[in-house]
């Protein structure tokens, strides 16, 4: 585990101490780093013998405070193979030390007001930038630098101001060590930005010795059935991700295997028996796209064969199955993840962004779900023995969304399932789950195919506003944050299928670079636990605490 020292300090208009706690949380989730924090500048002097792998600096000012002993300790630390990551106003610190300014290769000049601006990737083959989008937007303070020498560093990120290119992030060699500077980091909004967090973690990893690998994760698709064309879609997302490649397909239907041969020519293997596919030596990961009731046995079989596994949602049908799969993956040191692709849906991302910006205050109640009056059809999803019931399809998505919006422990569930109209199938017509969280937030989730008058897809109440969604292309936002009532229609940018490949971007980042797995099996287990408790509650007609 790499040892990181975070040094902070200066005027409070830069949230240097808060940012340190945020970085510690981010690195803690990553699992590869141990971080200490200090505002004691004398720590610089003892860096060469400290045992730290990297120093992360987010300070402001201290113009003449880098004394000769402190300066010598820092520069020797980096020159002898240590790493230095400077954040934002690190270029507005210790400006009395020209040796420090030369090392960081830039000095603060000016900045415009905080605003939203794009950040463009200059080199997408570097450790810090691989698999990142070509550009992303941030709300932050745009630093303009002086004394920046492009010949002394490798530019990774840039932006544009009034026709002029502005460096945002770069790296350079300094003796035997590495220096990375990232000009972003003033606002709390940017610290909650996924891409900014990834840049920070990668800057620390890269400068402290982590390197890219040329390994490719070879993937097999188990279940190329016709339902929603998911087999072909998974192949497209996998092959569009650097570091991943589909090499095999397996389906018990020879007709579907033949379809795979025609649609995905050139794979190394086409199988009708899972055992045959799992014998492939050049197979690292299996994507399980099967009916819900056989997720667990198929996953266990793949893990037993030494393969990483991505399983379609829902994770499984029972908590017992979830526990068995999680324990098998853990004991086998293999990755297990659930394809909760809709965490990247544009409407959910917009809702989460609005909540994170504080525009509705703290959430205290959520109504959500789908309701209509229509026959469910006769696919296997309408067979309770196979699918688990009404709540396991869209319920898996909504409950995963809710658990990520409400950062608190579930303390109580009341559930109700009804079978009243569509007796030609065995799944329920109506399901409702009422959830109470430890922080007092409540959620009323409904899935219904016998509601002649539908509810909104989302109705989220906060202490300073509310969100309502009744359409696919916009949400209504009401906010009292400014002290007066403001109501607006916010457009939802479409593109779910394109966004969903971000799931596989994380799979590659996790397996090839050791980064945090975003969709963890323990999170998916919580979804199954809530649905299972609803089933029990509906039968027992009482409250169930978990």
Category by helix and strand content: alpha/beta
Proportion of residues in helical segments: 25-40%
| Major sheet summary line | 9 strands, mixed
- Low-pLDDT segments, ≥5 res: none
Quick take:
The protein has helices at 16-30, 68-79, 98-104, 188-191, 194-207, 230-239, 254-263, 274-278, 295-304, 319-332, 346-356, 384-387, 394-405, 496-513, 521-540; strands at residues 2-9, 33-38, 54-59, 83-87, 107-110, 115-121, 135-140, 144-146, 154-161, 164-174, 177-182, 217-222, 244-250, 269-271, 285-288, 308-312, 336-339, 363-371, 410-418, 430-437, 442-448, 458-462, 465-469, 474-479, 486-491. The chain is an alpha/beta fold.
Kindly describe this structure.
It is a single chain. The protein has a nine-stranded mixed beta sheet. The chain has an eight-stranded mixed beta sheet with strand order 19-20-21-18-22-23-24-25. A six-stranded parallel beta sheet has the order 14-13-12-15-16-17, with helices on both faces. The protein has three domains: 2-207, Class I glutamine amidotransferase (GATase) domain (Rossmann fold, 3-Layer(aba) Sandwich), CATH 3.40.50.880; 217-339, Rossmann fold, CATH 3.40.50.720; 343-498 and 510-516 and 524-540, Dihydrodipicolinate Reductase, domain 2 (2-Layer Sandwich), CATH 3.30.360. With 546 residues, the protein is an alpha/beta fold. It contains 15 helices and 25 strands. The protein has helices spanning 16-30, 68-79, 98-104, 188-191, 194-207, 230-239, 254-263, 274-278, 295-304, 319-332, 346-356, 384-387, 394-405, 496-513, 521-540, and strands at residues 2-9, 33-38, 54-59, 83-87, 107-110, 115-121, 135-140, 144-146, 154-161, 164-174, 177-182, 217-222, 244-250, 269-271, 285-288, 308-312, 336-339, 363-371, 410-418, 430-437, 442-448, 458-462, 465-469, 474-479, 486-491. It is globular and about 80 Å long. The mean pLDDT is 95. The two termini are 35 Å apart.
């Amino acid at each position: 585990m790499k040892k990181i020292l975070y040094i902070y300090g200066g005027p409070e208009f830069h949230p240097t101490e808060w940012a340190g706690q945020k970085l510690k949380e981010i690195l803690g989730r990553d699992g590869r780093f141990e971080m200490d924090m200090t505002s004691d500048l004398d720590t610089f002097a003892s860096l060469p013998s400290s045992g730290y792998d990297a120093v992360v600096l987010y300070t402001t000012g201290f113009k003449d405070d880098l004394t000769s002993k402190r300066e010598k300790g820092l520069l020797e630390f980096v020159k002898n193979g240590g790493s230095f990551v400077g954040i934002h106003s690190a270029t507005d610190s210790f400006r009395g030390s020209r040796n420090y300014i030369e090392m960081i290769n830039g000095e603060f000049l000016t900045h415009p007001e905080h605003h939203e601006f794009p950040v463009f990737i200059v080199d997408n083959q570097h450790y810090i930038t691989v698999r990142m989008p070509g550009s992303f937007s941030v709300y932050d303070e745009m630093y303009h630098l002086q004394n920046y020498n492009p010949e002394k560093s490798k530019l990774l990120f840039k932006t544009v101001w009034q026709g002029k290119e502005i460096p945002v992030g770069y790296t350079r060699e300094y003796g035997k060590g590495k220096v990375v500077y990232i000009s972003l980091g003033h606002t709390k909004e940017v610290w909650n930005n996924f891409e900014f967090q990834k840049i920070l973690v990668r800057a620390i990893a890269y400068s402290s010795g982590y390197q890219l690998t040329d390994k490719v994760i070879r993937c097999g698709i188990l279940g190329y059935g016709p339902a929603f064309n998911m087999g072909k879609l998974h192949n497209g997302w996998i092959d569009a991700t650097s570091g991943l490649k589909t090499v095999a397909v397996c389906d018990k239907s020879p007709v579907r295997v033949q379809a795979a041969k025609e649609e995905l020519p050139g794979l190394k293997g086409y199988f009708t028996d899972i055992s045959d596919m799992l014998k492939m030596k050049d197979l690292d990961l299996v994507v399980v796209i099967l009916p819900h009731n056989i997720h667990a046995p198929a996953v266990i079989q793949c893990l037993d064969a030494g393969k990483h596994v991505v399983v379609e949602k829902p994770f499984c049908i029972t908590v017992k199955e979830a526990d068995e799969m999680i324990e098998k993956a853990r004991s086998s040191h293999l990755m297990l993840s659930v394809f909760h692709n809709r965490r990247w849906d544009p409407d959910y991302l917009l809702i989460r962004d609005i909540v994170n910006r504080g525009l509705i205050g703290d959430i205290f109640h959520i109504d959500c779900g789908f309701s209509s009056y229509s026959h469910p059809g006769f696919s296997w999803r309408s067979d309770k023995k196979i699918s688990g019931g009404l709540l396991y399809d869209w319920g898996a998505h909504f409950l995963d969304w809710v658990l990520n919006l409400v950062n608190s422990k579930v303390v109580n569930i009341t559930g109700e399932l009804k079978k009243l109209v569509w007796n030609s199938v065995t799944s329920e017509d109506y399901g409702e789950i009422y959830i109470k969280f430890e922080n007092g937030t409540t959620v009323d989730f409904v899935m219904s195919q016998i509601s002649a008058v539908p509810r909104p897809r989302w109705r989220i109440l906060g202490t300073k506003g509310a969100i309502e969604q009744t359409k696919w292309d916009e949400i209504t936002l009401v906010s009292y944050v400014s002290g007066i009532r403001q109501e607006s229609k916010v457009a939802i940018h479409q593109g779910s299928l394109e966004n969903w490949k971000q799931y596989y971007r994380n799979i590659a980042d996790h397996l090839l670079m050791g980064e945090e797995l975003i969709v963890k099996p323990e999170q998916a287990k919580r979804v199954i636990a809530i649905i299972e408790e609803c089933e029990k509650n509906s039968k027992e007609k009482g409250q169930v605490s978990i």
